[in-house]
Amino acid sequence: MVLSLLDKRKKNETKILTKNLIMRKRPFSPKQVSALRKVLIDNPRDLALLNTAISTCLRSSDLLDLKVSHVRSKWGEILEQIEVKMQKTSKMVTCQLSDLAQDSLERWIRVVGKEPDDYLFTSMRGGKKRITSVAYRKIVKRWCVECGWNPEYFSSHSCRRSLPSHLYSQTKDIRTCQIILGHESPASTALYLGIEEESAFSLVKKHQI
After folding, report:
1. pTM
2. Number of domains the chain contains
3. How far is CA 61 from CA 69, 82, 142, 146, in A?
């Protein structure tokens, strides 16, 4: 009876892990991010959305809740660092805004004349409401189609994963990745980035029979 329950639990854990691996979307590579920026050069909102998402590594719920007052100082300058309270954990995380993110945000805010209490990312058709997470996913997939990539491999989560995935591949610094993602432990970050699977497949490739 005990063995049966243990077997059932292991099967359930395997199913959950398999489902997570299937659902995990690819991060954008640096070359892909550059390609996206070229495609979006004449779309100030989407360029600001891409650069802010890549730079801050925020979950979509936190990213889309950003207002002008979160990224702009009282003197009107776009901030280099912002503090965001994560909805999932209620913890504060410090986010860096790259030069490209700052420039594209300044351009987008100026183009539409946003006020401090306005959401940053609103519909291109006007209005004060922020775009939804569903709309954000569709936007990212549309970008991929415009670049000629299979949209099934990418989603809004690809933006959040891009910087830490690149950072880890270049430095193996899991602690820094943990900090920018706002994870509670390095283990969570390793699982999120698929580091263990990557290492396992690398070993299999080296020792094929």
Report:
1. 0.83
2. 1
3. 17, 16, 19, 25
